[in-house]
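Retry 2 of 3 after timeout on previous attempt. Resubmitting structure tokens to design endpoint.
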């Protein structure tokens, strides 16, 4: 990174942001602005990251919220790395047998049994305790202001919101807070969330205990139980956000960091380990050979994920075994550069979830890679009637197969699709980045890193470059419109069935720390915005 020559090709898109002191990149301009204001006023990258994500929980309520989960990787000023797993657990009272007896064969996106304990608020608090310099109340002030006094509904947010009206209408609480006269708020209108403002104010005043204990927790549990779910006040009070040590694997001299399971960041490392056995740098970065190898490596890596990745307490294979180079070499040997592999497992998640990713770096050398999500758009489609909290449906990632490592069970964490990333060069943090888009994220991490390392792209080009992903391991390849006809034909000749992606495949943000400069890229797919000074 920074040592590679840019190839002789051009990609459309914006220029990367160069800054001397600090930079923030998020998927919403108001969020980026909030982060930059914190940095200008003397807060550090951790303060700015929490302020930014809290704003996004207000201005992008379909994408993220305090009823969801959060993961983060933090590079401290001394270069050491800290990880944070802010994912909540399944209710203590749920068992696969009870759900199967009730007639379920899977946990659907709109099932009340998909609601797990929200981990985000506790994660923010712990992130500030370990790395921040401002109190929670000051950090949450911008989000509270937007919720109380209103925020403008942008075209991207308004369009997404309108597509989810039918889901919102099914629940009284969601319709009360997130519809206007039975419709999504109009693009360009000012929308207020007064109940969410009061909830955020309570958290600002009393900390996370205001969320996980007392009236708010009582309402969350009562809302879920009224619809037949198992979530209890005790489940909420038992939230246990964890500091974790990232897992690492080398890719052509760059050390790639991901968080360990229950997140599926190890999938990205398996994928990169497979790709490292091929000479990607000799290929056309937008050609069929590159995309064929990437998709075949991804299909293998995701098959590994679906067999093994789960709550680490129930995994039978360690993360270290999964990311070994010898294991990857065996997987890579199955790839034929001229033909698509057939007969792989087909229980992969499709990239239809909603998530926000952001990254912030400050003048001290601290960098934060953070991701926050309610999983699908507006989560399970249920909001608490008084406090206005959208509840996540992260439990839809559980299996309902007794004996499977990722089968739902009491106080178990589900396989998690949201993953922040960071990359090191010579042991020092050099790239803080993430890619949104549900199950696509590990593939997106590998795609962006290879764009930079193998093809010499800058961070903005690496994010802008067209993407391909599969609709199920044995399904069609979903192809963004930027993929040219010759590449499509070449993939078809190798046995792939293609279809146009209905929408952009994910999004992403990145900050490169290089030679005293901070260089940021942001994704226009999701209204990405990077600012620095």
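Retry 2 succeeded. Sequence:
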């Amino acid at each position: 990174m920074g040592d590679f020559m840019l190839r002789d090709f051009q990609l459309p898109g914006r220029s990367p942001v160069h800054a001397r002191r600090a930079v923030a990149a998020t998927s919403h301009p108001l969020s980026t602005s909030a982060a930059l204001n914190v940095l200008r006023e003397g807060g550090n990258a951790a303060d700015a990251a929490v302020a930014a994500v809290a704003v996004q929980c207000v201005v992008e309520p379909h994408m993220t919220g305090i009823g969801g989960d959060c993961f983060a990787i933090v590079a401290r000023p001394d270069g050491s790395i800290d990880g944070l797993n802010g994912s909540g657990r399944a209710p203590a009272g749920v068992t696969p047998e009870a759900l199967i007896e009730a007639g379920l064969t899977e946990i659907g996106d709109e099932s009340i049994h998909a609601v797990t304990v929200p981990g985000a608020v506790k994660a923010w608090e712990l992130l500030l305790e370990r790395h921040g310099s401002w109190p929670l109340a000051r950090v949450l002030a911008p989000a509270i202001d937007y919720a109380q006094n209103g925020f403008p509904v942008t075209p991207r947010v308004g369009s997404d919101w309108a597509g989810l009206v039918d889901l919102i209408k099914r629940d009284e609480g969601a319709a009360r807070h997130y519809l206007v006269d039975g419709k999504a708020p109009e693009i360009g209108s000012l929308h207020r969330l007064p109940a969410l403002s009061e909830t955020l104010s309570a958290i600002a005043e009393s900390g996370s205990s205001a969320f996980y204990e007392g009236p708010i927790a009582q309402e969350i549990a009562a809302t879920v139980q009224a619809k037949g779910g198992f979530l209890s006040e005790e489940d909420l009070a038992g939230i246990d956000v964890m500091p974790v040590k990232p897992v690492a694997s080398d890719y052509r001299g760059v050390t790639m960091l991901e968080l360990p399971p229950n997140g599926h960041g190890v999938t990205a490392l398996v994928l990169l380990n497979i790709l490292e056995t091929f000479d990607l740098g000799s290929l056309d970065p937008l050609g069929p050979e590159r995309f064929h190898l990437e998709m075949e490596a991804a299909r293998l890596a995701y098959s590994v994920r679906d067999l093994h990745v789960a709550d680490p307490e129930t995994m039978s294979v360690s993360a270290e075994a999964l990311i070994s180079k010898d294991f990857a070499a065996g997987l890579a040997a199955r790839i034929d550069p001229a033909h698509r592999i057939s007969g792989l497992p087909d229980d992969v998640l499709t990239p239809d979830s909603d998530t926000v990713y952001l990254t912030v770096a400050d003048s001290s050398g601290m960098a934060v890679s953070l991701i926050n999500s309610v999983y699908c758009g507006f989560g399970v489609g249920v909001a608490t009637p008084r406090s206005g909290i959208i509840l996540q449906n992260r439990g839809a990632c559980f299996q309902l197969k007794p004996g499977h490592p990722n089968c739902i069970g009491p106080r178990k964490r589900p396989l998690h699709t949201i993953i922040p990333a960071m990359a090191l060069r010579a042991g020092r943090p050099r790239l803080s980045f993430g890619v949104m888009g549900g199950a696509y994220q590990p593939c997106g991490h590998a795609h962006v890193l290879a764009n930079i390392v193998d093809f010499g792209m800058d961070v903005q080009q690496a994010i802008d470059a067209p993407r391909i992903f599969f609709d199920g391991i044995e399904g069609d390849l979903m192809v963004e419109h930027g993929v040219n006809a010759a590449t499509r034909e070449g993939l078809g000749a190798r046995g792939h069935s293609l279809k146009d992606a209905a929408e952009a495949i994910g999004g992403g943000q990145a900050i490169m720390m290089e030679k005293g400069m901070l260089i940021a890229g942001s994704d226009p797919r999701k209204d990405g915005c990077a600012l620095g000074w």
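Attempt log closed. The mean pLDDT is 94.
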